[in-house]
Amino acid sequence: MPEVYNQFATIAQNLENHYKDMQDMEFTIENGKLYMLQTRNGKRTAAAALKIAVDLVDEGMITEDEAVLRVEPKQLDALLHPQFDAKALKAATPVGAGLAASPGAACGKVVFTAEDAKEWADKGEKVVLVRLETSPEDIEGMAAAQGILTVRGGMTSHAAVVARGMGTCCVSGCGEITMHAEDKYFELGGKQYHEGDYISLDGSTGKIYGEAVPTVEATISGDFDRFMKWADAARTLKVRTNADTPRDTAQAVKFGAEGIGLCRTEHMFFEGERIKAMREMIVAKDVETRKKALAKILPYQQGDFEEMYRVLEGRPMTVRFLDPPLHEFLPTKEEDIAEIAGELNITVDELKAVIASLHEFNPMMGHRGCRLAVTYPEIAEMQTTAVINAAIKVNKEHPEYKIVPEIMIPLVGEVKELKYVKDFVTATADKLIADAGVEMTYKVGTMIEIPRAALTADEVAKEAEFFSFGTNDLTQMTFGFSRDDAGKFLDAYYDAKIYESDPFAKLDQIGVGRLVKMAADLGRQTRPDIKLGICGEHGGDPSSVEFCHNIGLNYVSCSPFRVPIARLAAAQAAIKSK
Ligand code: PEP
Ligand code: MG
Q1: How many Å apart are CA 447 and CA 460, to the nearest integer?
Q2: Which of 53, 85, 111, 175 has the fewest CB atoms in 10 Å of its CB?
Q3: Which CATH architecture has domain 83-216?
């Protein structure tokens, strides 16, 4: 029916020209007559959305700004992470679900410890690490795994945050799992999964499959760069990354990060010899011994910062000083306690006494953040030395970088505590700079993550040269929800339609957002040129990025794999508000 075909082709072209988008059309032919039944914008995969947007620009149908609005920022995840083979996925049935904590798909054999994950991966096995929850000492195993599944923890739990940083798939907070880690199996949906059994995870939906579902690698096409350049041309909000290793930093720079908005230094204390020095510092009974232990950590930390500054090639880096409660650096298992006491030359009882003394009922609200620096200013002095010396050294190698170190004091709630810690920082930094005989400026700022800091931001800004909104803690403390435990009851809130979504993933603009806006306004009242950013997990969430644009923050900072998403979300916010 060549005539009908030609008629159809003309109509199809007309419709596409009219709607300026790819159409999904329904039609029928009866007795040689063509009837058009329906047309609508066609559904599309991420790769297709990108291709269609770019093609429509090339055909002169839409502008670059319009193209930028055509791709959902979250869709980019599918271009950056492995996905399940679509056919294989259709044949698979989920056996349970947890939180979609870090996107992508993973398939591998179950292991229960970080050590096993590393060992098996070194032998060429693909593994999925299954844990009750993860802690900083699991880092290497997490990096070796295809995916991470945890029983406990929300969207800002250790597993979720670290996995997103690595770009590794993670499903967290699957409370339906019964763990038998010592016997190396877990139960889910009435079945047992033993070490070595295959499971698969979808970190974009939270679904868990009790079988091997093959995955396909992510591929970025040439269109991606062109498209992202249009986004960059449209946006005014800068995009930085949360990174604390040279590897993550390099990844983020490749994805277009314009600097580091949050370098969480605690992650730098775990590897090899450093953790030993850290523990010596913690068990030290006096300042002198503590300083000796810190002196051992200094070269490692300085070396890390030097490497990061080199990878950044002049882009800025905000270094956050030690934040977690100290018990996180001490062992919990009986056999580890015995071994580590030996390494530290103290008795098991002495180490146990230290561990007991550090025990807190709610460590997230306990002795952490700047409270550590108030108690032990020598930690802040050591970290200042590491940052400033690293900057001086790399600036000498590359004068064109013109590094201006940014030092960030966490968990401030009162301007006087910021001033107290800042005085140690500036005294140390000024002396180092003078001794080195170099010209260098640096900034000292704070995180706004305690409601009191937000409420008194005009006061805090007298001492802080920049604010970075730590919306993970700010959400926790504004709602009074523990960021690690809220996952247990939030489902009931969604069912009851009290909350629509997880406030740890999508910024609560009405409550927490009001505090952020208020603090931004108050901060600018005191210091009109104050630099304002956000470094909580919300910095990579599109609707939260739009909010940050609308209240005039200078930048958002998010994990490396979310940098393109934030760039696109920032561009869309700018175009929409034009
Ligand atoms: C925050 O609280 O938002 C933050 C970025 O810090 P952390 O998650 O390390 O507490
Ligand atoms: Mg915090």
Answers
A1: 10
A2: 175
A3: 3-Layer(bba) Sandwich (3.50)
Banded model confidence at residue 217, pLDDT cuts 50, 70, 90: confident
pLDDT confidence bin for 46, thresholds 50/70/90: confident
Which two tokens mark 365?
């609200």
Per-residue pLDDT reduced to its tens digit, 52-72: 999 999 999 999 999 999 999
Q: Report which DSSP code applies to 201.
A: E
Closest ligand 1 atom number to CA of residue 471: 3
Catalytic residues: 158, 535
Query: Which of 135, 244, 323, 368 to mutate for ligand 1's pocket (most ligand atoms within 8 Å of CB)?
Result: 323
Name the superfamily (CATH) of residues 235-264+298-323+371-577: Phosphoenolpyruvate-binding domains (3.20.20.60)
Dist CA 99 CA 111 (whole Å)? 20
* Terminal Cα distance for the chain, rounded: 49
The CATH code belonging to domain 1-43 is 3.30.470.20
For a pocket test of ligand 1, which of 135, 156, 475 has the largest count of ligand atoms closer than 8 A to its C-beta? Answer: 156
Map tokens 């927490």 to a residue.
512
Q: Which ligand is nearest to the CA of 539?
A: 1
Whose structure tokens read 């029916």? 1
Cα dihedral 60, 61, 62, 68 sign: negative
Separation CA 37–CA 16 (nearest Å): 15
Say if CB 29 and CB 35 are below 8 A apart. yes
Cβ–Cβ < 8 Å for 270, 137? yes
Q: What does the pLDDT look like over 449-471, one tens digit per residue?
A: 999 999 999 999 999 999 999 99
Q: How many CB atoms lie within 10 A of CB 494?
A: 12
- Say what the pTM is: 0.89
Who lines ligand 1 at CB under 6 A?
Answer: 156, 262, 264, 323, 449, 470-473, 535-536
